[in-house]
Amino acid sequence: MCCNGLARAALHMRACARFACASARGGASEGRARAAPRGMATYVDVGANLTDGMFRGVYRGKRAHEDDLGAVLRRAREAGVSDIIVTAGTLEEAREAVALARETREDGAAPRLYATCGVHPTRCGAFADDVDGADAHLEKLKRVALDGKASGTIVAIGEMGLDYDRLEFCDAATQKEMFEKQFALAEATSLPLFLHMRAACDDFLEIIDRNAHRFTAGVVHSFTGGAREAAAVLARENLLIGLNGCSLKTQENLDVVKTIPLDRIVLETDAPWCGIKPTHAGFAAVAPPLSWPKPVKKEKWFAGALIKDRCEPAHIVCVAQIIACAHGVGVDVVAEACARNARRVFCIDKSHYPTVGS
Question: What pLDDT shows up at residue 39?
């Protein structure tokens, strides 16, 4: 291991000892996260925005480099990611996600891709904007969801929910109306929900409770709430919590993560967003594989490069490392538990899983 690698590993172990919940007198397996031996840790990323232009080299409408989605997927596979659920926030994105999932099904070097189908709360204006009307828009979503379920590509309804932090994009009344309307998709497909809850816990759970008979299970993804919100979500036995870099920014976030049982957590990256930054409280626990190249600015891209500030599915390893430190267990324990949760909720077939490193 090079000097940089030794320093990084030492920093990783000190961080784990600092905020692991296990007793300081416990054994090494209790007090710090351990990098899983190759072949052990298998990850399921339940939320990645792979239809985003960044993975095609386009940022804010301008091309910065070549399409490198293939390299991103291969890197995820090498990191142990066996399955990725591609998040859709509009009807158009759902169609794109389904097409992408179908395109990659025969690529043995890439994780297996699935998709969601639904409308993000900040984009619920799409219902009124549809020239055929809101009900017709819902029917279009339903057709995509049913077709996708039949082909094994769509495994969840969403992203749907409430976001009161960004009311400039869609007012609260419209968000609540269209959130409730989309439960019809869950009824029609019997698929679980991929949920968005931001600064709207009380209204969100009121709608969830009122429609509890209309869906089987769900994941409250990219969770950033406090202890009260976490306890309220966990009180609904069919809801799990999705954690990514945005869930691990502050010490308060890490304290909340400690209270969430591993059997109620699923891992996600929300790529290309929600990367783990040096300013984040959990950053010291991150020890990425030494084989990863140093991130470069998008303008300095080269084939196989990691892009600075662009999160990608391979970074799920880093998410797992921070959660492992918070819980005082091995990274492989977190990976296995969370992958098992994801397979159960989203009915992902384990039989196709390739062996990591093969």
Answer: 52
* Contact call for residues 190 and 217 (beta carbons, < 8 A): no
CB within 8 Å of 6: residues ≥ 6 apart = none
- Helix/strand number for the chain, H first, E second: 13, 10
φ and ψ of 161, to 5 deg: 150, -145
Q: How does DSSP assign 87-118, residue by residue?
A: P--SHHHHHHHHHHHHHHTT-TTS-EEEEEE-
pLDDT tens-digit series, residues 197-213: 999 999 999 999 999 99
Tell me how far apart the alpha carbons of residues 152 and 144 are, in angstroms, rounded to a whole number. Answer: 12
Q: Can you tell me the distance from the alpha carbon of 336 to that of 16, in angstroms, rounded to the nearest whole number?
A: 19
* 180 class by beta-carbon count within 10 Å (0-12 exposed, 13-18 middle, 19+ buried): middle
Domain boundaries, the chain: 41-352
Q: What CATH code is assigned to 41-352?
A: 3.20.20.140
Phi, psi of 116 (to 5 degrees): -110, 170
Q: What is the identity of the amino acid at 264? A: R
* Torsion (CA) 169, 175, 177, 179 in degrees, nearest 10: 130
pLDDT per position as a tens digit, 11-43: 444 444 433 333 222 333 333 333 333 454 899
Q: What mean pLDDT is predicted for residues 257-280?
A: 98
- Cα 181 to Cα 95, 121, 124, 142, 207, distances in angstroms: 20, 12, 11, 12, 10
CA 134 to chain centre: 28
Element (H, E) at 8: helix 3-19
Beta bridge partners of 162: 197
Residue-wise pLDDT for 325-342, tens only, equals 999 999 999 999 999 999
